[in-house]
Amino acid sequence: MNQDINQLIMEKAKEYESYVIQQRRHFHTYAEVTAKEFETSKYLKEEAAKLGLPIQELKGTGFIATLDTGRPGKTLAIRSDIDALPMDEDSENLKGPKTCVSVNPGACHACGHDAHMAIALGAMKVLCDIREQLSGKILFAFEEGEEQGTGWPVMSEALIAHKIDAIYGNHVTAFMDAGTFCADEGPRMAGAIGIEVTVNGKSGHGSRPDLAVNPIVAASQIVTQLNTAWSTRLDVTKTVTLSVCMFQAGHMSNIIPDSAFLGGSCRYFDIEESHKAAAIIEQVAEGVAAVNECTVTFGKKQGIITTPVMNTPELAQLSQKGIQEMMPKGSLVHDVKWFASEPFSRYYDLFPCMFNFIGVCNEEKGCGAEHHNGKFDIDEDALQGGVAVTAKFAVDFLAGGKGEADD
């Protein structure tokens, strides 16, 4: 039976490969950023409706499409993010022209959410086709605003009401070869610490800095002192990255401004070290500001924003076993962690979680640029495997399957 269902899933994934590629190119071409995924959401709902799945509208652009087998059993949520990044896209990848480019200025799927949606739709079609062999329910949860972390509260509230037994998600990765997967237990993606520091000084004429208090000087020193503190006050074996990405101050060359703003983030895997890092940021900012006769104001996103994405051990084992059964030998890789962050981490406090990495790098095709880069592109040959692995996990989970992957 297990071998038969595996073969059926693979046949269906192959059957829908061109459909999935077509969907990915559609979403990529018509990319929409956080809170503006109106056409994306509408299109996804239409595809789900074609399969007869009822739609639960949520506040904003997120929604849930439910596959109910009509038989009692577990309830699994398969989550996909739907938003693009607010950036322009390069028409070429690392080798040449891309197969598709966003036509919407300032909106670009440079993180792979187009692939996530396409894989979810492909898995939806496969699972609908074999629904007579399943029990329980599958909720396809399309979450808005992943890039800004705005969609998960509404989605989690809805999933709690559905009393789901677990939640599954995918993320394509540009640093893993196409055809490979990673489903390790424990921490997968980093937690995030926000940096939002406004340094308050006293404005004045640029010709008389002695009569003003220049916040730019203090803000500059905060940046350098933070980097010094990072190497001397944090455990070097428990990496916490530091990136000050925004420095905003002034608008004319002869006016000393009232304030300067610093924005950025840190990423971590160790919880204890994250609290130390968050405290250091505030200590350095306040101390340096005081020495320069300035004050600081911290923004709403100052401090720990998210915890690391975690995989529940039992679900990781189930996913690994499924990958080994479905994919060629060597497809399952281990010990891959990603210092990016994801609000999928929020679900870990609520449900058993499984977050799978899908490799999409292919240097020969020019696919391998970093996420959030204008040249980011994926090897579409990886999508079929993503569909098969997702459907396989759903089938095994609903069947109550357990098992250990081979070493």
Automatic annotation (TrEMBL):
GO terms for molecular function: hydrolase activity; metal ion binding. Keywords: Manganese, Metal-binding. Its cofactor is Mn(2+). InterPro entries: Amidohydrolase (IPR017439), Bact_exopeptidase_dim_dom (IPR036264), Peptidase_M20 (IPR002933), Peptidase_M20_dimer (IPR011650). It comes from the Bacteria. Coiled coil: none annotated. The Mn(2+) ion enhances activity. Pfam families: M20_dimer, Peptidase_M20. Residues 191-286 form the Peptidase M20 dimerisation domain. Mn(2+) binds at residues 111, 113, 147, 171, 372. This is Peptidase M20 dimerisation domain-containing protein.
